[in-house]
Amino acid sequence: MASSTVPSSQPDRPPRPNLVFRQLRGPRSPAEFAASVRRAAREIGERVSCDARYVHRVEAGEIRCPNYAYERVFLHMFPGRTLTDLGFAPRSSVRGRRRRDDGDTPPAPVGAPALVTGESGGAPEPYDPHHPYDTHHDYEESDVLRRAFMTGGGATVAAASLGPLALAPDASAAQRAVRRPGASDAGALEEAVRRIRVLDDRHGADGLYRRASAPLRAAYALLDAGATRQRTADRLYAGAGELAISVGWLAHDSGRFDDARSHYAEALATARVTGDLGLEAHAFCNTAFLARDAGRPREAVRAAQAAQRAARPLGSPRLMSLLALREAGGWAGLTDRAGCEQALARAQAYFDRGTAPADPEWMTFYGEAELEGLEAQCWSALGDWPRAARHARRAAELQDPHFTRNIALYTAELADDLARGGHPDEAAAAGMRVLDLLPEVQSSRVRTILAGTARVLLPHRRAAGVSAFLDRHASLPRPV
């Protein structure tokens, strides 16, 4: 595998048709095939708004990789096959990627959604739908990227994420080196966002945050340098804002709340400068989550409501569902059960509408597992431990294996809810499963929850499995 992780600066190529998927459709019309997709979704409890237009887009290669809801449906329809067997690109090659404009595409109007479909869009590099990628390949790529972030210095990470620009020792030097950034710089910035998200999904934030500041400094140096073309400038602003949110999340998940607040505010300011409603909704979404975790529930409610106002024109029910859950978390923190239940009901109603073309790409993590996990957190905040444990267990069972960090998080929350609900033996068993994942996941959030569970279980050392869990937890090395 080539060592460079920066996309080619050559012009975008047209999407390659997905001939495999077209062959699987057989003699059925796109509308007939879409109906079969919807039926298959109902069989496994998914809701997708598949229509003939979606099928056309897949077959034309416009959707390189489906979102997780569609993935589950397609794998149910064609058992024994992988996404690549169905003609799609590996998810690790498209996670969080934006559609990149070509020279003939007019710029989107101010205020239009900055993030495109809920599936990954057009490919900036040559793409062969028959290339023999498999799960092992995806794992190897992730491991290579993980080593680059975890063991490399700031310059190594910057080089992997943003190319020669980020090798500059400071922002002013980067600005002098670039002068006028172009489309390739915007593409490198989008690539940095994608790679950070993939690594966080699998390994958590702690090892990443210390290394992520260099790409962010380089991104804002690109903005200061100023692009000649408005189209490129728009991409740079949107990319810098999304990168600020990604770095803010790394700070948030690793317990650096003040740093996270600063990064989210930076992203919000960038959104306001450009009138980017999608970026504004994303920034407010994360701000609400942070405020809840930092013990400012009323701010969480206000930020979530502001996010919903920004998101309403974008046409994404799934985004509105997530934002309603953010609001529910705030109401739970205020111990307002009625307000929480109302927001949870809205979140479920929006979620039941299914996916939509306007779903932002950064929301690929949001499926039924996340819905269950966030609801579990609400009931936990309200002290309803049995209900919290029920939802946390379902979240862990439903979570896609790609999101290792979330599996650890939901299982840690399950252990805590069981411990506080008077089931020490079950809590210890769940805690053991989390400990098994810690070598792969670096998340202060998960460790903090697990430490709280251990404290609750101390008086129950004689219960089955509790002593073994406590001893193993006590032997954990201290995070550096």
UniProtKB/TrEMBL annotation:
<dbReference type="InterPro" id="IPR011990">
    <property type="entry name" value="TPR-like_helical_dom_sf"/>
</dbReference>
<protein>
    <recommendedName>
        <fullName>Tetratricopeptide repeat protein</fullName>
    </recommendedName>
</protein>
<feature type="region of interest" description="Disordered">
    <location>
        <begin position="1"/>
        <end position="22"/>
    </location>
</feature>
<feature type="region of interest" description="Disordered">
    <location>
        <begin position="86"/>
        <end position="137"/>
    </location>
</feature>
<feature type="compositionally biased region" description="Polar residues">
    <location>
        <begin position="1"/>
        <end position="11"/>
    </location>
</feature>
<feature type="compositionally biased region" description="Basic and acidic residues">
    <location>
        <begin position="127"/>
        <end position="137"/>
    </location>
</feature>
